[in-house]
Fold this sequence. Notes:
Largest sheet: 5 strands, parallel
Amino acid sequence: MTEDHIRRILDQVAAGRMSAEGALKRLRHLPFEDLGFAKLDLHRTLRRGIPEVVFGEGKSAAQIVAIGKRAIAAHGNLIVTRLGPEKARKLKARLKRFVYHEVARVGAIVVRPVAPSGHGTVAVVCAGTSDLPIAEEAAVCAELFGNRVARLHDVGVAGLHRLTANLEMLSGAAVLIVVAGMEGALPSVVAGLLDKPVIAVPTSVGYGTAFGGLAALLGMLNSCASGVTVVNIDNGFGAALAATLMNRVGTARGG
């Protein structure tokens, strides 16, 4: 249920084309609908400009289909993160217009395209190719949230010349999402070179003492470059949402 959809209902009531009872019937599921196994937040787009995003792990295909059908019936977009290929194939067979982004492990149905908005581009910077799934989760989600997105891959600290060769492009971004595993040094380097907000995303990529991303997380939290914002390990979605809100500050909400 979006702001524009509610406004159209109210305009119809004001013009006498819909009864108050009819409008009440259309709006009765605000702010959420209880599906038994889930309470679908139909009000979230109205509150935050971003629909409820479904975390695909731990949910069956049947549960996600039920959530998706109800979201679509309410004229909302469907976004599913952490979605494996097998489960995605089941969803594609049962949900029309379902699109799967395999590297990002994100599925979506866009009923209502979100117009690009915000101050500028969200740049997603990826340290290594092994970090790509998390970087792509961030990039795809940021696009679905209505951002213009630029991608820069494989520019980790093992070869800083790869990063510095792209500083002009990065300096044009409004917000930077920097994704790295191993020791997690790349966000500190980027934040020390540019005057843009940096959201650091530690990944679980690395050898034994990386401790599943804990080493990168602690390194980012202890960055000597001031003002680095850090999200949880492998949380590309969370970084995309934070970047979207930063990109919108002081602007009219688009979409």
